[in-house]
Amino acid sequence: MTEFFAHPGWQRLLLALLHSAWVIALVGGALWLTLRSVRNPRTRYAVELAGLATFAVLPALAWVFVDVPRTTPERPSALVDDDGRGDFADAIVTSAGVSPSDGESSSRTTSPAATSWLDRLRPWLLAAWLSGVGLFTVRLMLGLVGVTRLLRGCEPLPERLVGRVRRLRRRLEIPASVVVAGSRRVVEAMAVGFVRPVVLVPTSWLTSMPTAVLEAIVAHELAHVRRWDLWVNLLQRVLETLLFFHPVVWWLSGRVRVDRELCCDALAARATGKRVLYARALEYVAIRRVEAATPLVAAGWGGTKMRLLERVKNVLGVPGTAGRTGWWPLAVVAVALGTAAWFGGPAVSAAVADDEERVERRNGDRERGEREERREGDRERGEREERR
Q: For burial by CB atoms within 10 Å, which of 75, 90, 231, 355 has the most?
């Protein structure tokens, strides 16, 4: 395994992940401070999407700009060279902006203990990341397979809903190709599909719920389709798969889902034209819904942990507290700063050591020159005295 991960491409990948990790934490801290002062769900949602896009770009930028030393004939081993330094530790220092000038100074760039530890840890970190990506990829694929199963056996809507659905499509400017159907395979309403979205409503709801409540439910799911939330949700899952190890990514992705539901509630309430009735529909569904597993790539009515009171306040235009978050992102930022200092510390120490060495070398050369001048002067004085 050590030989496999000794390739410079794997070194560059791990360095890109490490450097982007603490930058993502810093960006997450800035987003946390920004979101605390924003009360409009649409504005928060736009800021959160911009943050997720930044998180997706940062590893690619780190891959481009990180500097990984290439193996030369003088350094025959891809992992450890003649003086005991590994390429991985060397790459961390080089990417921090310090390039050793000669063999003597480079040997002191990082301590032997730190170098050995980093070189031993590198293959295990890469193996752990690949394992996590593999597991989350399987999770994502199972979600896609689950969606295809849900689309089988759809049933037509009752006549009392057909006209209302047609009117909602027109108000939301959604094409008629977006199908609304009943299904016995789902236990809550959800929108699935990407190229040809389908809104599925449990068959039991079609026969037991009032028509006005069903209209509000369908309006909410059509709002997901209108806002392209299915595609955004898929991109979120991909980002969570690649950066599964970062808590800030999960925190911001969760915030996106919360504000997404608030935005859909506001859009659906405008489409129905009955805000109070829509708020009652939220309560009606929340009381009667059951715990259910929604496919990862589907957009539903809102998870069991969604704050009903906050959603009702948002529909009725009452100021809420959705923008407030806990203080834990600051702890993540503090850890990120510590990580950055840890990685940059050896480089700074090496630079300081090199500066001190150069100063000592110059001082030593100056002292040796002065001693030579004194010896030369003593020799000349001795020769003059002998001639006298």
A: 90
CB 66 within 8 A of CB 12: yes
Distance of CA 193 to the CA centre of its chain: 24
Give whole-number Cα distances, 300 to 112, 219, 334, 373, in Å. Answer: 54, 12, 36, 88
Candidates 352, 357, 346; CA nearest to 88 is 346
**Rounded Cα distance, 13 and 17, in Å:** 6
Calculate the alpha carbon distances from 148 to 152, 185, 204, 306, 362 in Å. 7, 11, 21, 26, 74
- For 233, 261, 325, the CA distances from 258, given in Å and listed in that order, are 12, 6, 12
pLDDT digits (tens, 9 = 90+) for 206-222: 888 888 889 999 999 99
C-alpha to C-alpha distances, 285 to 210, 240, 299, nearest whole angstrom: 11, 29, 16
Q: What is the pLDDT of residue 279?
A: 83
How many C-beta atoms surround the C-beta of residue 91 within 10 A? Answer: 21
- Predicted local confidence at residue 46, as pLDDT: 95
The pLDDT assigned to 356 comes to 56
Q: Is the pLDDT of residue 235 over 50?
A: yes
Residue 387 burial by Cβ neighbours in a 10 Å radius (0-12, 13-18, 19+): exposed
Please give the biggest Cα pair distance in the chain: 133
Mean pLDDT, rounded, for 12-21: 88
Closest CA to 179 of 146, 218, 205: 218
Burial class (CB in 10 A: 0-12, 13-18, 19+), 369: exposed
Count Cβ atoms below 10 Å from residue 338 Cβ, excluding itself.
Answer: 11
Work out the pLDDT band at 240, boundaries 50, 70, 90: very high
* Closest-CA residue to 124 (of 7, 5, 245, 246): 5
